[in-house]
Each structure stands twice: as C-alpha cells, then as structure tokens.
C-alpha cells in the first residue's frame, strides 16, 4: 500500500526551540511547496531569531500555548498536519519544578490530540528515547520500538505519558498518528542549559566546564539535522500507528565528549570541575534505528561526530549575541544547585 503523504500546510509546535526550529528551517529549504505555521509560546527556551529570515509567505509564527484549546480551534482548521515538538525539555529543570512539565507535555499533548480528532489532521508526535528508561553501561542491548516504558525523571515520565495518550487516541479514535523517539541531539541553536552548549560557552566565558557524577554516563548523539530529515520521512512515508526510533549510532560517555570539546578548544584535558550528580541520573541511552533504516530508507548524513562537534563549537564561537542573554541566569541556577 502506498501511504505517501504530501503535506501542504503544517503546524509545527515548538518551532522556535532548538529542534523544532531546525525542522522548520529544513522544511523551508527543502520543501518550498509546504507552508508552515509555527505555534510557540516563546518560553525561556523559545527564540523567534531561530526562524528569522525565512520567507514570510512560507513561514508564519503564531505566539500561543498548546494548552489553549480555543486557540487550537481557531488555527488548526485548514492545516493538513501537526508536527508536535513543543515541550518543557530539560531534565534538571523538571527535577526542580515538575509542574510546567506536566502542564505542557501532558495537558498540552492532550489538547492537541483533541484538536487533531476534531479536525481530522495527520499528527506526528516527537518524543525521546528517555521514555525507555536507561540501559546498563557496557551491555550490548539497545532500545527497540516495542520495549516497555520505564522512564526515570519527571521530564521523561511526562514525555512517556504523552506518548501513551497518542497511542490510545490512535487506537481508540483512529487518529492518523505516528510517534518518533530520538536520542540526544546536538548542533547549533541549542539552549546553553544543555550539556554540549553549556561546556562550550563556559570555556568561551572562561568558566570551567562541569561534569556530573563520574562522567561515565553514556548518551547516543545525533545531529539535529538528521533528526529533522527522519521526522519528515516518518511524516510523509511512515505507517500510521507506528513508533520509529531515531538514532545515529553515536554512543559516547559524557567524559569522552567533554574531553573532545576541551581538545577542540585548545584546553588541557583536566580543565573541568566534577560536580554533584543529577538525582536519578540515567546511565546509558542507545538506539537501534533498524526499523527507520529498513522501512523508510533513512540514513544519517552527519556520521562524523568530531566534525559535527567542531562545527557546533564554531557556531557558538561566532553567535555570542544569540547565547549570551541566557548564560548568566542559567549558570546562576546551576550554581544554586551545586552544579
Ligand atoms: P527546547 O526546550 O529547545 O524547545 C521547546 C520549544 O517549545 C520552545 O520554543 C518553547 O517556547 C516551546 N514551548 C514550550 N512550552 C510550550 C507551550 N505550552 N506551548 C507552545 N510552545 C511551547 O526543546 P528541544 O530540545 O528543541 O526539544 C523539542 C522536542 O524534541 C521536545 O518534545 C523534546 O522532548 C524532544 N526531544 C529532544 C531531544 C534533545 O536532545 N533535545 C531528544 C529527543 C527528543
Ligand atoms: O553540565 C552538565 N554536566 C553534565 O555532566 C549538564 C547540563 C549535563 N551533564 C550530563 C547529564 C547527561 O548525562 O550530560 C548528559 C546530557 O545532559 P543534557 O544535555 O541535560 O541531556 P539529557 O538529560 O541526556 O536529555 C537530552 O536528551 C534527551 C534532552 O535534554 C532531552 O530533551 C531529550 O529528550
């Protein structure tokens, strides 16, 4: 059966954040026939500069909350798909104050699903590998789409909850929905609260990088552009009701990533501080992307992590005016937590 879908007029929620804005820029560049309405609340993590310069005729920004059902009733009609990125996305914030996570990630997804039902649009749900919990260090197993949900943090449990709502709405109400669970993204425009931008901008500011716990925790890194291409493939060619895992075989321990940053930035290998570990810190994430590769023919284009990391560092070096406004408050918040 040919399930090719050609979206002409999509809503991208969270399109002013790190990954959502990459998707918006990628679609604008590669699919000029597709109109994009960005729905974004512009929280501390949303920045309209991330989508500045795109053609007005193709990309429109609506500033608003996904939890606002009346707003959704007004803007969803006339669109043929919603790609849902909007979320509270930072684990450390979720430990300090889980409430906005429950509100946006669970309630916001519920409201979107109700609008999707009402107006019968295609829906793609962007989620995380963290819903599967963590793996032991050194074991060969990787996450697979049918694995049980075992989320550990307030953030990942709200994302897991949202995934389960999507699965239920697809099965019960027949929504045309797909889900993707992706591993850790890196690249330009990522908020300075996250691991790689934090360390890079610390070095640029003359502050020592901060490593949690033993530094042995493993993350599976993927360039955000490869994530965007995968989401487009799933939206346009994926099978309704299915879950796809997105990953680029990029497993690395945090200390290895930090050492690479230090070396790329000309710093001694021991020029960092060990700081208090994150409570409940997941040990290892690893994605088996076979289903995405075999069913949809997707392959990562950014295969050389060191090269992608060097380009990312260069972007932060040359875009200080983008990250500087958030830096001081972010570090003050970490310092108050002993991190
Ligand atoms: P981000 O924090 O950089 O951006 C989130 C965006 O959502 C911001 O623009 C923010 O203003 C917007 N937003 C937040 N609450 C909103 C609300 N109530 N209504 C409308 N807009 C709202 O996040 P990110 O890192 O770009 O992550 C995007 C999505 O990808 C999230 O769903 C996240 O769970 C998922 N994801 C992230 C990663 C990663 O490595 N960062 C990996 C896998 C999946
Ligand atoms: O200063 C730090 N030092 C440190 O050692 C920070 C900020 C983090 N870390 C560690 C914690 C993690 O093991 O680095 C690793 C990566 O941390 P984050 O960038 O906070 O990412 P993580 O918690 O792995 O979650 C990310 O990937 C999955 C995204 O933030 C989520 O939105 C996504 O779902």
UniProtKB/TrEMBL annotation:
Needed co-factor(s): NAD(+)
EC assignment: 4.2.1.46
Domain NAD(P)-binding, chain residue ranges per copy: 11-310
Pfam family, one: GDP_Man_Dehyd
InterPro entries: dTDP_Gluc_deHydtase, NAD(P)-bd_dom, NAD(P)-bd_dom_sf
Signal peptide: none
GO biological process: nucleotide-sugar metabolic process
An annotated Gene Ontology molecular function: dTDP-glucose 4,6-dehydratase activity
Keyword Transmembrane helix: no
Keyword vocabulary terms for this entry: Lyase, NAD
Record flagged with keyword Lyase: yes
Lineage top rank: taxon: Bacteria
Enzymatic reactions: dTDP-alpha-D-glucose = dTDP-4-dehydro-6-deoxy-alpha-D-glucose + H2O
UniProt record similarity statement: Belongs to the NAD(P)-dependent epimerase/dehydratase family. dTDP-glucose dehydratase subfamily.
NCBIfam families in UniProt: dTDP_gluc_dehyt
The name this protein goes by in its record: dTDP-glucose 4,6-dehydratase
Organism, as annotated: Olsenella porci
